Amino acid sequence: MKTINVVAAVIQHAGQILCVQRGVGEHAYVSEKWEFPGGKVEAGESNEEALAREIREELHLDIVVAEFLMTIDHTYPNFRILLHTYLCTAPHRRITLTEHLSFCWLPTIELDTLDWAAADLPIVARLVSPAF
Ligand SMILES: Nc1nc2c([nH]c(=O)n2[C@@H]2O[C@H](COP(=O)(O)OP(=O)(O)OP(=O)(O)O)[C@@H](O)[C@H]2O)c(=O)[nH]1
After folding, report:
1. Domain Nudix hydrolase: where (predicted)?
2. Ligand 1 atom closest to Cα of residue 36
């Protein structure tokens, strides 16, 4: 089974976190699910470089990658994903959606109200935990 390395940004601004919704896709298990913006790491790129590039491409937003949060190892029916997640900050919250269906900014305690991609659930659990 194929393993892909994906980076994802937990972008914080004024106490809220940016959540984005994927469009309709070939895999039902991620189609229209909520996720943290990001994408696949390309050859020769660091995770931080890949993340800044993906967020510029997808959202037209320049972020600061502040701190590594966690890596999730999740197996979907057709592939295995290593999801490397970073805490990031944004200078403002103006974004332009170029790929996603929808977005919202939520306070951490409300993150678990969305229908997240399965790989993201441990990240959401960490963010909503009192210890975070
Ligand atoms: N970006 C992102 N992808 C995630 C998350 N959780 C998760 O399961 N994924 C999965 O990881 C894969 C990432 O692919 P992507 O489509 O975002 O990456 P990309 O922009 O580089 O892809 P492409 O250029 O090949 O279209 C997708 O299958 C997506 O469903 C997440 O929080 N963020």
Report:
1. 1-129
2. 32
The pTM of this model reads 0.96
Interface confidence: ipTM more than 0.85: yes
The whole domain housing 109 covers 2-128
Distance 6 CA to ligand 1 centre (A): 6
Q: Give the position of tokens 């959540």.
A: 19
Burial (CB < 10 A; 0-12, 13-18, 19+), residue 17, is buried
Indicate if ligand 1 lies below 6 Å from the C-beta of 80: no
Residue 26: CATH number of its domain: 3.90.79.10
Beta-carbon neighbour count of residue 61 at 10 Å?
A: 22
pLDDT in tens, 14-71: 999 999 999 999 999 999 999 999 999 999 999 999 999 999 999 999 999 999 999 9
Q: How many domains does the chain have?
A: 1
